[in-house]
Amino acid sequence: MRDTDNVELRAAWATVPDVAKAEDRHAAILELKRAFKRPADPERARREVIDDAIASFRVSGKWPADLGSRAAKAYFEALEGQSEYIALVEGERLLKHEKEDLRDTLSDDALAYLGRRLADVLSDAKTAGAALDGVRNADEAIQAGGGALEAFRTLTALLKDFENIRAAQWSVLTSVADEDTRAKLRNWKRQGHGEVAGFRPDDVPPFALEAMQTQRYTVPYLVWAANIGTSYVPASLDDLEADVSAATEPTAYDDSGPIRDFSPIEVPIPDAPEAKRYAHSRPAHLDHSTPAPRPIKPNATPGDPAPLTYTY
Q1: Buried b vs exposed e over 52-90: b needs ≥16 C-beta within 10 Å?
Q2: For 197, which DSSP code?
Q3: Residue 295 CB neighbour total at 10 angstroms
Q4: How many CA atoms lie within 13 A of 230 on its CB side?
Q5: Where is this region: Disordered (predicted)?
Q6: Which of 130, 137, 252, 270 has a CA positioned 20 to 30 A from the CA of residue 282?
Q7: What is the number of alpha carbons within 13 Å of residue 51 lying toward its C-beta?
Q8: Degrees (nearest 5) of the Cα angle 276, 281, 287?
C-alpha cells in the first residue's frame, strides 16, 4: 500500500531524501488537482451559446450580432480551464510514478531504518520483560501491581510499534516485487518467515509460531522475540529469499544428529598400533634347516574369555 496511516512506514520512506521530496511534490500537485474546479468541455460550452441563440431567434426573430464572439469566448474560457486540468492530471500521474519508482529503487534504505527501529523496540521490550516477574496477561499484571504492571503497560505500547514495523516491512518488500514474487511473499508471510533469521518451524515454540504465521502479536511473543536474539528485518527482497531458501533446505543427519556444515576436512591417517604378543605366542619357524627364532617378548596379557551362555 503506497499511502498509509502507518507511522513507521511513513518514517521509513521519509529517511530517504529523494523519496521524501517526491512524496511532497506528489502531495502538493494532488491537492491542487482536488481543489481545481473541473471545467466544462469547450465544445459543449460553445454549443450551449449557439443553442441559446437559435432558441432566442425562434422567439424574437432577431439574430444576435455578437453570437460569434460570445461562442468563441465560451469555448476558449472552457479550453483554458480544461488545459490546466489536463496538466494537473498528467502531472499528478507522472509524479506518482516517479514517487513509486524511487521507493522501489531505494527500498533497501527504508528497510535499514526499519531494522534499526526494530532493534530499539526489542531492546526496550527486553528491559521491560525482565521486570514482568512471571506476568503473562493484563489480569495478572493488575494483580501483581508495582513494577510488573508498569512493565506490562510499557510492553503493550511497544507492541503497537512492533506491529507497525512488521506491517511496514512487508509493505516495502511488496513494493519492489513483481506479481509472481508477491505471491511468494504472501506464502512466506503465512509460513512465518521474515521475523527470525534462520527460522525453522520445529525450532519455534507453538505460541510464537502462531504469532509469526498470523501476525497477531502478543506481549509474550514480543518478550520472546526480544530475548531470542535473532529477530530481524530483511535487508532486501534478495536477503529474505536467501533466508527462506536456507531455512527450507532439508536437514541431513548422521549418528550424532543434524549436520549443516558440509565443508571437507582433512583427517591424518594414524600409525598402525603395535601388534599384541602374548606369553604363549611362538614365532613362526618355517624353515627347519635354520635355527629356531628367538622367543617373543610378550607385551600383552590375554583377558578372561567371554562366558558361554550354556554354562549358566
Answers
A1: ebeeeeeeeeeebeebeeebeebbeebbebbeeeeebee
A2: T
A3: 10
A4: 10
A5: 249-268, 279-312
A6: 270
A7: 6
A8: 115
Provide the 8-state DSSP code for 257.
E
What interhelical angle do 179-191 and 146-175 show, nearest 10? 160
Is 176:107 a contact under the CB 8 Å cutoff?
A: yes
- Domains in the chain: boundaries: 17-105, 107-249
Closest CA to 233 of 70, 120, 149: 120
pLDDT for the residue numbered 259? 54
Q: Measure Cα distances from 266 to 205, 229, 252, 263 in Å.
A: 38, 34, 20, 10
Residue-wise pLDDT for 15-63, tens only, equals 888 887 888 899 999 999 999 988 889 999 999 999 999 998 998 889 9
Amino acid symbol at 4: T
Among residues 93, 95, 92, the alpha carbon closest in space to that of 19 is found at: 95
Grid coordinates representing 46?
460553445
Find the DSSP H helices in 176-260.
179-191, 206-214, 219-228, 237-247
Please tell me what DSSP assigns to residue 205. Answer: -
Spatial separation of the C-alpha atoms in residues 49 and 171, rounded to whole Å? 52
**Which pTM does this prediction carry?**
0.59
DSSP SS3 for 231:
strand
Average pLDDT over residues 234-242: 91
Radius of gyration of the chain from its Cα atoms, rounded to whole angstroms: 40
Q: Are 197 and 230 in contact (CB under 8 A)?
A: yes
Angle between helical axes of 219-228 and 107-130 (0-180°, round to 10): 110
Pairing of strands 252-254, 257-259: antiparallel
Cell for 207?
505460541
Q: How far apart are CA 205 and CA 199, in angstroms?
A: 12
The grid cell for 300 is: 600383552
Dihedral Cα 136, 142, 148, 150, nearest 10 deg: 120
Q: Are 274 and 296 in contact (CB under 8 A)?
A: no
